[in-house]
Specification:
383 residues, alpha/beta, Rossmann fold, 3 domains, five-stranded parallel β-sheet, four-stranded parallel β-sheet, 12 strands
């Protein structure tokens, strides 16, 4: 559930509770989870209890609406067992909830455009909130923008595109490159582990677009903030900048050089494992799922070096939980069985949920497991 909250995943969670007749009376009634609703509310976007039979479907409908409203997130509905067992007439209205489209202040976008039109080296930092915004991102890239991504924003622009640094966002060569840029951060939390605990010297001044109004000045101060949907704001921004912005002729070459240096640094540290990465890249092609558990191999090269080409291809434990690799790989396979799925796991993480191998067999989940075995909890030892 915390993983879904961290990843802004629209998730409906339905759970049970004892009969309404005995609820919240401190009767030590068997299987009651005292104050379960408060616990759920503390780890989710929202949580509700169905209190009457007649409000069961309306409550679920509202939970779905909140889960899907940007920024999305997990919502739980607690249903007492007597209400679960009740029979109701089939409702005349089974229509989906109304999910509003996030709007934005066009004047702020205009102001952002006026600021950026004077910039010569504009860089987009793309987070997971831009996964649906590839077309708008590509419009800005055609105008000369460069791209760097968080791990969650990987693949919004294919990672073999010459205008992207990929997720090589914390390397010294890239940090030096940042000093020459002006950055627009879009749909990213600028998480602590991807900004050296907020010490990474990001480009200044910094501008920001986010579906969460509370992202304004969070982690880093920004000169201008636009609250809105990434795709809509970036598309409007591209229209306002077309035929107006002139990017420094050396910008693209400097970006490519920064990426080449970062790739070389990671590759040098891999030693003989570089052959593993190269052979994997050849084997998987462009249309595949790249699933990673929290293993040191992921933090050193799995999060960056193996290229991905669409924003749903990268699957990883965003909340940092160990031992989620197998489950996530099975889910990735079942979401699209035609795709190749490769799971990078450590021996410690695998053993936490090794029983999921039985689930993989049961579901005929065709997944390649790359097991990095250092015979210990490598991540914990490293910490």
């Amino acid at each position: 559930m915390v993983e879904a909250l961290t990843a802004d995943t629209a998730l409906l969670h339905i759970t049970g509770q004892i009969e309404t007749e005995y609820l919240d009376q401190d009767l030590a009634y068997i299987h009651e989870a005292p104050d379960q609703l408060s616990m759920l509310q503390s780890i989710l976007k929202a949580a509700f209890r169905v209190r009457t039979v007649d409000t069961a479907l309306p409550t679920i409908r509202e939970a779905v609406r909140i889960a899907l409203t940007m920024p999305a997130g997990p919502v739980s509905v607690e249903i007492p067992i007597d209400i679960q067992a009740a029979e109701i007439d089939w409702p005349a209205d089974m229509a989906a909830s109304h999910v509003g489209t996030l709007t934005h202040d066009a004047q702020r976008v205009q102001k952002l455009a006026e600021v950026l039109v004077a910039k010569k080296r504009p860089l987009l930092w793309l987070g997971g909130g831009t996964r649906h915004a590839r077309a708008a991102v590509e419009r800005l890239v055609k105008l000369g923008f460069g791209v760097v991504t968080s791990v969650q924003g990987r693949g919004v622009l294919p990672e073999d595109h010459p205008a992207t640094l990929g997720a090589f966002n914390v390397h010294l060569s890239v940090e030096a490159f940042y000093k020459t840029c002006d950055a627009l951060v879009v749909g990213s939390r600028l998480r602590g582990n991807e900004t050296l605990k907020y010490k990474l010297a990001l480009p200044q001044p910094l501008y920001r677009v986010d579906a969460d109004a509370l992202a304004d000045n969070r982690g880093y101060r920004n000169e201008l903030f636009v609250h809105g949907d990434a795709s809509r704001v970036l598309d409007e921004l591209a229209t306002l900048l077309e035929a107006r912005i002139e990017v420094d002729a050396s910008f693209a070459g400097d970006l490519a050089a920064a990426r080449e240096t970062a790739v070389a640094e990671v590759s040098k540290g891999l030693g003989p494992y570089k052959r593993l990465v190269d052979s994997l890249q050849r084997a998987v092609g462009r249309d595949y799922n790249w699933v990673r558990d929290v293993t040191i191999s992921n933090s050193t090269w799995g999060n960056r070096l193996l290229k991905i080409f669409n924003p749903r291809a990268g699957v990883h434990a965003l909340g940092g939980g160990i031992g989620q690799g197998m489950q996530m790989a099975i889910g990735a396979v079942l979401s699209d069985a035609a795709k190749k799925t490769v799971a990078l796991v450590g021996d410690g993480g695998l053993m936490i949920n090794v029983g999921e191998l039985a689930t993989a067999m049961q579901e005929k989940a065709n997944v390649m497991i790359v097991l990095m075995n250092d015979q210990c909890y490598g991540v914990i030892r490293n910490i």
